[in-house]
């Protein structure tokens, strides 16, 4: 589905839905963005012909499963969003209305906002690499990881990047793949210590994940309720709070063990 707005951005960030509209009905254009499910990308695969994850210093494992980071697609920071757009999106399950300044930093030009989102993505990639290497007890001098993913901004691909690095370097720790050959999607920020943070927009991201073939979705535990509210059929939620917990859950899933659920 295409909006009438010419500028749409794929973002790994999200936001909670707007709670009240009445206070701003009289203003036009309104300070909102309208979002829908965005692209997903397999961090174990290629992006425009270049591997998303490149490993140097250690052999990289061959993988057949997928770890798909998810995004929302939102009207651009300069797009005019009127009351008709807001009302139309408000009553749809495949769109969401969000305060514009929760999607984009306020007060900046389009160029400044793009640069901000790119910087957030770079910081997220650095944290994801540090978290994965810390989990595997490897130092940056032992292995070099390069991450490449174009046209996406924001911090919430961090968890999936970390899991991809773990799968490429260690798999499930027993000779198999961390994914078990499945298509697994998810979202979540990550810190160098492995803690996973909430991001928002999960109800749209679960739709993007299921659309692109995922059967499992890793969600920050704090956002379980949002993810369950409009969960697509055939998609299993696994709540996570840490990278080690996410790895353990995926190993248990592959072995038919006890897996956390929302």
UniProtKB/TrEMBL annotation:
Domain Lon proteolytic stretches: 153-233
Ranges in a coiled coil: none
Top-rank taxon, per record: Bacteria
Pfam families in alphabetical order: Lon_C (PF05362)
UniProt cross-references to SUPFAM superfamilies, sorted A to Z: Ribosomal protein S5 domain 2-like (SSF54211)
Gene3D superfamilies: 3.30.230.10
InterPro entries: Lon_proteolytic (IPR008269), Ribosomal_Su5_D2-typ_SF (IPR020568), Ribsml_uS5_D2-typ_fold_subgr (IPR014721)
Protein name: Lon proteolytic domain-containing protein
Organism of provenance: Streptomyces melanogenes
């Amino acid at each position: 589905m295409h909006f009438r707005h010419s500028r749409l951005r794929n973002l790994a960030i999200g936001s909670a839905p707007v709670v009240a509209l009445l206070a701003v009905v009289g203003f036009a254009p309104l300070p909102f963005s309208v979002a829908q499910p965005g692209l997903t990308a397999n961090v174990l695969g290629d992006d425009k012909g270049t591997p998303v994850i490149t490993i140097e210093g250690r052999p990289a494992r061959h993988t057949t499963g997928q770890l798909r980071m998810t995004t929302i697609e939102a009207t651009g920071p300069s797009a005019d969003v009127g009351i008709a757009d807001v009302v139309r999106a408000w009553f749809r399950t495949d769109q969401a209305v969000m305060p514009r300044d929760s999607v984009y930093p306020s007060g900046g030009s389009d160029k400044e906002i793009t640069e901000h989102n790119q910087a957030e993505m770079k910081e997220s990639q650095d944290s994801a690499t540090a978290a994965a290497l810390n989990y595997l007890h490897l130092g940056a001098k032992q292995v070099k990881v390069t991450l490449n993913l174009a046209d996406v901004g924001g911090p919430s691909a961090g968890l999936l990047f970390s899991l991809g690095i773990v799968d490429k370097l260690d798999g499930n720790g027993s000779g198999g793949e961390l994914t078990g050959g499945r298509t697994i999607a998810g979202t979540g920020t990550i810190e160098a210590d492995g803690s996973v943070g909430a991001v928002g927009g999960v109800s749209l991201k679960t739709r993007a994940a299921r659309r692109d073939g995922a059967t499992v979705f890793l969600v920050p535990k704090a956002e379980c309720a949002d993810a369950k509210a409009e969960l697509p059929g055939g998609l299993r939620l696994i709540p996570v709070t840490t990278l080690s917990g996410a790895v353990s859950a995926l190993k248990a899933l592959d072995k038919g063990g006890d897996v956390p659920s929302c």
